[in-house]
Amino acid sequence: MNDLNDFTKELLDEIKKPKAQRAYSLFGLKFNPFPSAGLPRFSSLSPLDTDVKDKIKHFIRSTYAATKEEEYAGLTIIGDFGMGKTHIMKYLIEHINLLNEASLKNHNVNFSALTCFIDKPEDTPQSVVHKIVEQIGVDNIRKYIGRIILDRFKENPDSFYDRFKSKKPTLFLKSKSDWMKLFDEPAASNYLEFLTLFNLLGGDLQLLQEETRSIIKDVVVQDSTLADRYLDLIFEEKKANSSWDILAGYVSNRNIQHKEVMFLNSVVKILRQVGFKQLYVFVDEFEDVSKLKGAKLSNYLITLNTLINQEKRWALVVSLTPEALRKIKEESAPLYDRLTSYKINLNQLNTTKANMLLANYLNIARETQGNEITPFTKESIKEMLKISKGNYRSFILISHKAIEVALAANKKTVDIKILEKAKDLRYDEE
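The structure assignment produced for this chain is given below.
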């Protein structure tokens, strides 16, 4: 340590301090609440515009309460880069999950929805469908199909023994009472436990597979090939390792659009059968679609529109820039109408919203909640709006840097000089 210069020693001493013990108390804060990259990490932070919250309410009410298949509604979140589109998505997802939790705790609340967040739209809608399955999880799909099968078998447990007991001679013939254990816990609610016990009882596995396949075709999907893919998930010796294996050998270059529609239909049916009332799919950075060229763009838009038209029992939420939305409207007016049943436009920060944003973040790190913006001032906010050009991400980023610079300078207030130094840490002079 003796060969280290004074500044290096100071750095080491600072690094050793837990964040909570650093001197943010200078500003009445426990820590710097502003994300260092300008990316919101607190999805619970409420949108600054009341009309955004109102549109979220209307969208949830419309999509969740919908009982007719033609009542599909989509939500498009529109804004330039750094305007908080992803944050609005995460905020919406968090509140859907909170509604799910409330429903579990309070039987008077009837809400059960599944959310899938996809960070990019990929280069085909087929990839989006595959990502939906990956988000749900192949183990969950296996579990859900198992529940569907067991519910059907439970309808007539008395005849189950006569139908499925092995016709081959066996040294240890199990009684009917032993077979009834299939409908007691844990086998009654766990298909893998059910299969294990069924095999121990010497049941006719081939007949069980045939019966299971018939139930899948009756309840989930009539397509025989896809039904076989789902059957592969149920039986141990056929178990698929990933969602892609479900489609292996099913999706080919022929009739791919029809097959993807069939696949999405089947996923939604499975979810509905086990109690989910709605599937919300969030696709971030949807502007990437507008970068596709020629036939690839046309095929993407046509296929996505077909998926929505043929399967309306889901809700798609996308985020994109105004320019990208205009291009999609030019290329496919029908898809534009589907995507924009509800629209949220995110505009630049103004003084009022900047004050609200600062107070919201500062409240995270201080004991007393309120509307105070200390250590910032009216003058510093005006300068920060100028530096950030009203962009949310840039404004949050300069706020983080300003706190750090003021702390290093032992200044209780973020003034113009502090902002100039903070700006040099991130922004290039124009």
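Interim note for the steering committee: The longest strand covers residues 113-118. The chain has a mean pLDDT of 85.
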